[in-house]
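In the design runs reported in the main text, the only information available to the sequence generator was the tokenized backbone. The following block is the verbatim input for one such run; it is reproduced so that readers can re-run the procedure and compare outputs position by position.
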């Protein structure tokens, strides 16, 4: 069967799930939000990485219904966090270019929030530079509308795309996420360090919170703390995990 048809079936049969990776404040390592990462669990238990199906989902347009499911599932997850007394933890959802262009609207997100009883700050959107490149004017208009509504917007994988400074200057962003390729060698490679230091300063100069992704050891964490980075995410602090494991961890049981 063609992969597109299998993806369509997977959505219908409920084979997608979300894993949640904590994003911590650097100051006290408290969890401020979680990034939702989609997984495709095949009936045989095998887990397919989004790297192996998101590109095709984008090409075929299936990313729109899949992305809608991701937002609804993230909203349900937020309710469970709030019920567990952790309504302060927001959920960041990755939105790809096609989805941002034809699957996301101000009214759609308002309806989602109203239906799920979600505070506006409960959902963050993580956008990559490809979102901005595809149709910059339309993306900017939508971002301004969402921002006006109080939706937090992050620019993801910053530094790997075209990284036009005009995006940072002209778009209503809240977070800049330094791509993990720069974070990896930050404690050992002066060139990576120079880039990260510059990105932290750039983000702060623009009033953005700076997130370092892919933090895998204590040396990286110490370096980022010393350089004044705001938030951190990575295997050193927590892997993407099922919602129940996240709830247990937030309750201090793990
Ligand atoms: O966790 P990980 O290896 O699985 O994620 C791989 C890539 O897939 C990352 O670039 C991530 O942003 C992307 N990704 C994960 N979940 C989603 C999703 O729900 N929507 C989109 N568009 N991309 C996602
Ligand atoms: O493109 P995006 O930044 O959304 O991708 C997030 C990806 O990074 C996911 O695949 C996630 O599983 C992965 N990831 C999260 N933390 C780490 C880490 O510490 N090291 C590595 N190598 N990957 C990570
Ligand atoms: Na992301
Ligand atoms: Mn990223």
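Verbatim output:
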């Amino acid at each position: 069967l063609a992969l597109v048809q299998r993806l369509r079936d997977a959505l219908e049969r409920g084979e997608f799930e979300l894993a949640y990776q904590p994003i911590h404040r650097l100051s006290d390592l408290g969890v401020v939000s979680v990034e939702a990462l989609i997984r495709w669990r095949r009936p045989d238990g095998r887990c397919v990485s989004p790297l192996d199906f998101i590109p095709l989902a984008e090409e075929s347009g299936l990313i729109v219904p899949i992305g809608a499911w991701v937002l609804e599932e993230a909203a349900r997850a937020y309710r469970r966090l709030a019920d567990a007394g952790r309504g302060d933890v927001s959920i960041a959802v990755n939105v790809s270019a096609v989805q941002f262009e034809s699957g996301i609207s101000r009214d759609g997100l308002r309806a989602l929030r109203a239906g799920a009883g979600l505070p506006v700050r409960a959902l963050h959107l993580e956008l990559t530079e490809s979102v901005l490149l595809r149709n910059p004017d339309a993306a900017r208009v939508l971002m301004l509308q969402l921002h006006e509504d109080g939706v937090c917007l992050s620019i993801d994988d910053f530094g790997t795309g075209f990284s036009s400074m005009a995006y940072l200057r002209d778009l209503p962003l809240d977070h800049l996420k330094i791509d993990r390729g720069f974070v990896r060698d930050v404690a050992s490679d002066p060139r990576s360090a120079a880039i990260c230091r510059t990105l932290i300063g750039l983000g702060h100069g623009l009033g953005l919170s700076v997130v370092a992704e892919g933090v895998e050891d204590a040396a990286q964490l110490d370096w980022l703390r010393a350089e004044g980075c705001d938030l951190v995410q990575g295997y050193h602090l927590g892997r993407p995990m099922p919602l129940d494991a996240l709830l247990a961890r937030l309750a201090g049981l793990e």
